[in-house]
């Protein structure tokens, strides 16, 4: 019998499931992010061709999240009922096709309709993966895997910048460059949907590529991976009555307000510094490399130390400093300040996403809780995808610069200042969560013990004290 205490066997097992799951998840989320945010890469070109105003662009960017948020919880419940393999595969296939159809937009109305459909078909991707990882990895392994998964944002940023540079000013076969960009970034997602369906397994127990001994190891490591607990009305009641749900949701909303603003407006901010649209897309790519380096080291240290809260405060501070430098650079047309600021803001805000999701799921010990908590938090939090673009779209109508900038250039200085306040709010909310989390965690763990098939509190207590256990409390 293979024992959990055998370090080399455990390392081999972890490497094997990493190689099987992580590349597919990264590839899927990369194209989800590309299709979601590629409107930012084509802002100027598509605005000229279909007569989009600043307000129209903000509406088209944010409207995606109306259906994305509305269907996140139902989609995640579908994942729990039918498994990640089927649901993620179907989502990828559908949103890839819809993403490519953005090339057919001829005016604001058609673009808004397509973006609504895109949000519908992408709903639940992130909470589904977060739930999927809880069935394969222990808490002290999960944060780093969420970090790996978040590398999709970096790959999407780099790839999107390079594709934008290559295509945005090149018309071919009767289609404009921005239309080809939507097609090139949409079609591969359709193929990946088929790959995900064939490669992923819902839990270790349902695999055909793990040996019986490895499946036994998985069951010993994560008992909840044996079966998936059903979601009941009591589960929803528990989630909706837990104050930490709303604290996490508000913090996640603030984080996504920053990250989606950066996704949709980074090329525009660089463009205002005097670069062409193609070069602005190209200069967006190195920012993602800086982001990747910071996230790798922060998530690695967070997993090894068990410290989520200090890392969140560090990243929130970096985001605030970054937006401050962007504000300084915008006010005095200072390219180095703006670019360094974009690097810091993107790195800090982006790393907050896996940190927050890891912090949320670390102490959820029942699989149905994980499904509902993550779906509710991400659904509410993704309102930031509407808020961020709207702040910049509305404020950007003010074009009165005092530093001699082009009169046709939107003034985003008030919006940058708002983002500084949002980053500070994340810092404060994380402090409140840290103070209230012990009480919520203890309540959830007591509930898990009471519903754990006859396991007593005394039998479960050693697990609560073990850093590697599925119920270890991270701070």
In short:
This protein is mainly alpha-helical and 475 residues long.
Which SSEs are present, and which pair or pack?
Blueprint lengths: L6 H31 L5 H8 L3 H17 L1 H11 L1 H17 L7 H15 L2 H10 L4 H29 L9 H23 L12 H10 L11 H8 L2 H29 L5 H29 L3 H24 L2 H27 L5 H15 L2 H12 L17 H38 L6 H9 L10
Low-confidence stretches: 400-408, 451-474
Q: Average the pLDDT over all residues and give the rounded result.
A: 80
Could you tell me how far the N terminus lies from the C terminus, measured between alpha carbons in angstroms?
35 Å
Measured on Cα atoms, how large is the radius of gyration?
22 Å
> How many helices?
19
Structure overview:
This protein has helices at residues 7-37, 43-50, 54-70, 72-82, 84-100, 108-122, 125-134, 139-167, 177-199, 212-221, 233-240, 243-271, 277-305, 309-332, 335-361, 367-381, 384-395, 413-450, 457-465. The longest helix has 38 residues, at 413-450. It is built from 19 helices and no strands. By secondary structure, it is an all-alpha fold.
Descriptors:
19 helices; disordered C terminus; 76% helix; single chain; mainly alpha; 475 residues
């Amino acid at each position: 019998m293979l024992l959990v205490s055998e370090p080399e066997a455990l390392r081999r097992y972890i490497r094997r499931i990493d190689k099987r799951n992580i590349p597919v998840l990264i590839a899927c989320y990369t194209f989800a992010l590309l299709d979601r945010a590629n409107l930012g890469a084509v802002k100027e070109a598509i605005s000229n061709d279909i007569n989009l105003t600043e307000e129209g662009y903000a509406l088209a960017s944010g409207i995606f999240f109306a259906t994305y948020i509305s269907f996140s919880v139902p989609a995640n419940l579908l994942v729990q009922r039918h498994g990640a393999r089927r649901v993620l595969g179907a989502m990828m296939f559908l949103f890839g096709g819809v993403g490519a159809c953005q090339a057919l937009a001829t005016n604001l109305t058609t673009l808004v309709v397509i973006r609504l459909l895109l949000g519908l078909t992408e709903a639940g991707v992130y909470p589904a993966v977060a739930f999927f990882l809880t069935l394969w990895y222990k808490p002290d392994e999960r944060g780093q895997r969420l970090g790996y998964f978040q590398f999709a944002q970096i790959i999407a940023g780099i790839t999107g910048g390079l594709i934008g540079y290559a295509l945005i000013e090149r018309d071919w076969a009767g289609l404009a460059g921005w239309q080809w960009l939507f097609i090139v970034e949409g079609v591969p997602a359709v193929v990946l949907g088929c790959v995900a369906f064939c490669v992923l397994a819902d839990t270790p127990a349902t695999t055909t590529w793990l040996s019986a001994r490895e499946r036994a190891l998985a069951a010993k490591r994560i008992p909840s991976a044996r079966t998936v607990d059903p979601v009941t009305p009591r589960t929803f009641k528990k989630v909706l009555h837990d104050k930490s749900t709303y604290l996490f949701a508000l913090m996640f909303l603030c984080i996504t307000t920053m990250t989606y603003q950066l996704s949709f407006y980074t090329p525009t901010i660089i463009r205002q510094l005097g670069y062409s649209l193609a070069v602005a897309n190209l200069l967006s790519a190195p920012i993602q490399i800086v982001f990747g380096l910071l996230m790798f080291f922060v998530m690695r240290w967070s997993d090894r130390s068990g410290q989520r809260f200090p890392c969140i405060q560090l990243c929130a501070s970096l985001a605030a400093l970054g937006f401050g430098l962007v504000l300084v650079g915008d006010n005095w047309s200072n390219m180095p300040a703006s670019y360094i600021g974009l690097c810091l803001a993107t790195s800090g805000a982006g790393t907050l996403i896996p940190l927050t999701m890891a912090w949320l799921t670390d102490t959820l010990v029942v699989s149905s809780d994980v499904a509902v908590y993550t779906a509710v938090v991400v659904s509410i939090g993704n309102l930031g995808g509407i808020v961020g673009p709207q702040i910049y779209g509305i404020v950007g109508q003010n074009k009165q610069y005092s530093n001699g900038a082009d009169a046709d250039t939107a003034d985003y200085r008030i919006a940058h200042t708002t983002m500084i306040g949002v980053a500070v709010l994340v810092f404060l909310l994380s402090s409140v969560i840290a103070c209230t989390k012990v009480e919520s965690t203890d309540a959830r763990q007591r509930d898990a013990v009471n519903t754990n098939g006859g396991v007593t509190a005394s039998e479960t207590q050693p697990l609560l004290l073990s850093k590697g256990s599925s119920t270890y409390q991270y701070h």
